[in-house]
Design goal:
about 550 residues; alpha/beta; Alpha-Beta Plaits; Aminopeptidase; 2 domains; eight-stranded mixed sheet; four-stranded antiparallel sheet; 16 helices; about 40% helix; binds 2-acetamido-2-deoxy-beta-D-glucopyranose; binds zinc ion; Peptidase_M14; disulfide bond; secreted
Amino acid sequence: MADDFKSTLCVVFVGLSAIIAANRVAARPQRGDFELAAGAICNCSSTGGDDGSFDEGNRARYSDEEIETDSDFTIDKESRGFSLTDLVESMFSAVASGIGSIVTSIIGTEKNFRSRSSRVSYKNHQLIRLYPNSQEHVNDLKELEKSESEDVKFWTEPMYNRTTDVVIGPDLVSDLKAFLRYKGIDFKVLIPDLQKTIAHQNPKMTKEQRDDLVTTNGHSMTWKRYHRYGEIVKYLEYLALRYPNIAEVITLGHSYEGQPIKMIKISTGTNKDGEAKPAIWIDAGIHAREWIGSAVATYIVSQLVEKNSSYAKLLDNTDWMILPVVNPDGYEFSHTGDRLWRKTRSNHADDEDDSRFLQLVNRYTRWLWGKCEGVDPNRNFDYHWGEVEEGGASLDPCHETYAGPRAFSEPETKAMADYILANKQNIRVYLTLHSYSQMWLVPWGYTDTKPSDYSELASVAKKAIGAVTKIHGTDYQVGPSADLLYPTSGASDDWAKGVAGIKYAYTVELRDRGRYGFLLPASQIVPTAREIWAGIKTIARLVICNT
Ligand SMILES: *[C@@H]1O[C@H](CO)[C@@H](O)[C@H](O)[C@H]1NC(C)=O
Ligand SMILES: *[C@@H]1O[C@H](CO)[C@@H](O)[C@H](O)[C@H]1NC(C)=O
Ligand SMILES: *[C@@H]1O[C@H](CO)[C@@H](O)[C@H](O)[C@H]1NC(C)=O
Ligand SMILES: [Zn+2]
C-alpha cells in the first residue's frame, strides 16, 4: 500500500512539475548582442606592494562553544490584508497539512520530508571520486545524476576524461559502489563521513574570545576560521570608521530575507584630473557553501586597507570594489541550517506573474518535497538567461541550479548588477570568487564559442596563475568556462563581459581539487588568500596603466 501511495505521489508530482516548467519556459528573455569595450594590455612598471607577512598576532584560543552571531538584521515581512484568495489559500494549506499527516503516517517523515527547522546532518554521507574513462561511463553517470535523488549529489559534472565528485547518502553507499563495480567505473572514497569533516572544518570561537579580539583589534576577523555574515559586515564598518579616507561601506540593497548587502569601496580619491580611477571589482559568496571565497575577499580588503602603505602605488592607480558576500541569506543558512546549501533563500510561490493556481501548485510541491527554496544566483544574471539546460541551468525550482522564474528575480543579483552597471565605465576587471577546482575561467559559459579577445584574456590569466603558483606551488588551470567546467547560462562573468562590457571578466575557482571540496579547512584560508592576492595584483599590473 505504501508503495502504491508513493507512485501516486510521483505521478502527481511529475504532472505538476511539467506545468511549472512550462510556465517557466514561457518567461525567457530574448537574446541581445552587445559591443564589448575595447581595451589593451599595457606595459606598466611594477605596481609595488609587498605582500607583507600577515599579522599573526592575537592568536585566538578556540574552544568548543560556537559563538552566536548577533542578529542585527531584521527580516521584513509584508503584512497582508484579508482577502478571498487568502481564505482559499488557508483552506488549501489546512487540507495540505491534513494530507501531510496522513502521508507521514504511511511512509514516514524522516528521509523524504527533511525538516528545515533543524540542521541537516551529513552523518555517514560519503564524498566519492569517480573516474569515468569512456563516453559510456559518462552517460551512465549522467543518468544517475538525472535521477535527482536526495541521496546522490553531484559536486562536479560527469565529463569524459575528468573525475566526478559525488556525495552519497548512507542508505545508497553500498548499492552505488556495487553499481560502479558492475559498470567498471573506478572510484575512491575521499571523505568517509561528511559530518565529521563539517564538524572539524571551522575552529570554534567563544563569545569571550571574540570580544577579546574586538577589544584588541577593533574587529573579530581572524582568517583562521570562517566568520558569520554579521562579523564580516562589522569588519567592513570598522574599516570605514577607522580609515575614512580610503574605505567606504556601500549598501547595495537588501537580500530576500532583508539583510543588507554591503560592499566596501577602497579608493584614495580621484586622479589628478579629478576623474574616477579605473577600478577592479571582486565579489564572492554568490554560492552560499563556498566559504573560502568570502574569506579570501576579506583578506584582500585587509591587505589593501590595513596595510595600505605597502600598496601605495596599487592604490594610487586603482579603485577597488569588493563585495565579500553576494548572497548573505544563503551564506548564513549554510552556517545554521545546511552546510552544503548553494542557492539563495527566496521563495517564488507568491510571484505576481504566476497565476493563483500555479502558486498553490508551487506551494503544494514545496510542501511535498520540503526543500524547494532558493535560486542559483549564478544562473540568474540577465545574459542568455535560461538558455543552457543540460546540466548547466535548471528551470525546476527544486534543482540546485534553478535559474529563477526570470533573470534577476533575486534581489541579490539585481543589487549587484545595478551597482556594476552604474559604474561600468570605470570597472576594468571583473573577478568572482568561487570554489572549488583551482581554475581561472574565461568567458563564455553559455556557449562553446570563444569571445574574439579570448587570447588576450587567457594570456593575462596565465600570467596571474603563474604568480599564484609562485607562492605555494598551487596549480591552477586556465580555460573557457564551457570547456573546463560545463556550459552554464546566466553566470555573472558572462553578464559582466556581455552586458556591462567589462573586458577582463573571470570566474576564479579556488582551492582545492576535491580533497575537501566545499569543506576546505580553515587552516587553508591564509595560504589560499596569499596566492590569489598575488594573482590579482598581477592582473592589476597588466590591465591598469599608470598613465
Ligand atoms: C609590452 O612590452 C613588450 C616587451 O617589453 C612588447 O613586446 C609589447 O609589444 C608591449 N605591449 C604593448 C601593448 O605595448
Ligand atoms: C585524456 O587525459 C589524458 C591525460 O590527462 C590525456 O593525455 C588525453 O589526451 C585525454 N584524452 C582526451 C580524448 O581528451
Ligand atoms: C594607512 O594605514 C596606516 C596604518 O594602518 C594608517 O595609519 C593610515 O591612516 C592609513 N592611511 C589612510 C589614508 O587611511
Ligand atoms: Zn560557485
